[in-house]
Write a structure and sequence with these properties.
76% helix, mainly alpha, two-stranded antiparallel ribbon
Length: 238
Amino acid sequence: MAAPLELITRGYELVAARPASLLAAVLALVVVAWRPTWRLTRTAVTIAHEGGHALVAVLVGRGLTGIRLHADSSGVTYSTGAGRGPGVVAMFLAGYVFPPLLGLGGAVLVGADAAGAMLWIGAGLLAVTLLQIRNVYGGLAVVATGALLVLVALRADEELRTGFAAALSWFLLFGGVKACLELRRGRRGGRLRHSDADRLAELTPLSGGAWVAFFVLASVAATAAAGWVVFAPGGAPA
């Protein structure tokens, strides 16, 4: 009995030592879990998702022809090149894992007292993404998101800037997990049969369900890793 109590006590001490980090995580979780706020903010996860597709498409030598973001939080990235092969697999694989990986990277930067750098990196990535947007809604969404990051980076004091960067990191992590769970639920309900998981199933020996499971595990692992970075001994002080 002593061991569980010791673990609980130790966990309480770690969380109590970093109340700002806990508050940022709780706020992000509420935004993701509450349907009205999730509907309003989910496009940010879609931007990261499509940005992952676009980045990997360029890295594997495909021709990137544009990105479209829609008001229902869906999106599509257009590229040219071979219809099969490792490059195509990597491109479809990148979408669902990119938001939580960005969140993990953000947590690492916040933990290294580089919240400002995280915000400017995010703004830079959004600026590059904007060059590939091919519809009005997508352009407005990217500009609004980038403007918010620049505003906080330039105008907010250090405490608010760090808190915002931490909350954004957790939002990408929790939002990435939720997007994967929505994909699983949608496929089970028969509503999503042309998803990244289905395309990967066409390109590889694994089933669509196996790929969805991989997405979920990867996003949960990234979130757990961020928790370790922030709350483990020696983690982020914010």
